[in-house]
Amino acid sequence: MKILAFAGSSSHQSINRKLVIHTTSFFKEHDVTLLDLNDFEMPLFSVDREANDGYPDKAYKLIDHISATDLIVLSLAEHNGSYSTAFKNVMDWCSRTNSKFFQNKPMLLMSTSPGGFGGGNVMNAAVVRLPKLGADVLATFSLPSFYENFDQEAGIVNPALLEVYLSKINEVKAKMVL
């Protein structure tokens, strides 16, 4: 099984990327491709740019990665209560080339933040929006207070949150018949 994993953040210190990397450790027996959103940086979307220049090659490259995968593991950063600008821009370009650019691929959708809501605002928006873009969201998980609840070596250290997290991973595995 091929798994595509990435964070909806362009930060080189992204806590969402750390969560994604940790999550991929539960899928070691599968072929995991970890993407960096920075490798898909594109000009700021505008209808004028679209009309004059067409679509960036990087939008097609991301869509090709999605086409070649069986499961997407995505963790979204929350900036001012919404998607990061980097993720929103990628989403805008990709959705213009293919309105269902997630291509009905199964997805484990996550978010985390330093605050107590764990990226809940972006999660709420994504649960509504991403299926309209072709994501088949199998399970969701939000990790609040990242710096208190996550350790680089151990992963999620809060027992109650760890139990929920593992149940979401097992739910995805059961639905994917892994």
Core attributes:
178 residues; Rossmann fold; five-stranded parallel β-sheet; two-stranded antiparallel sheet; 7 helices; 43% helix; 22% strand
Structure report:
It is a single chain. By secondary structure, the protein is α/β, with parallel strands linked by helices. The chain has a single domain (2-176), classed as Rossmann fold (3-Layer(aba) Sandwich), CATH 3.40.50.360. Helix content is 43%, strand content 22%. The chain has 7 helices and 9 strands. It has helices at 15-24, 47-53, 57-67, 85-97, 120-132, 146-149, 159-176, and strands at residues 2-8, 31-34, 71-76, 78-79, 82-83, 106-112, 136-143, 150-151, 155-156. The chain has a 5-stranded parallel sheet, sandwiched between helices. Strands 4-5 form a two-stranded antiparallel ribbon. α3 crosses α4 (85-97). The N and C termini lie close together (8 Å).
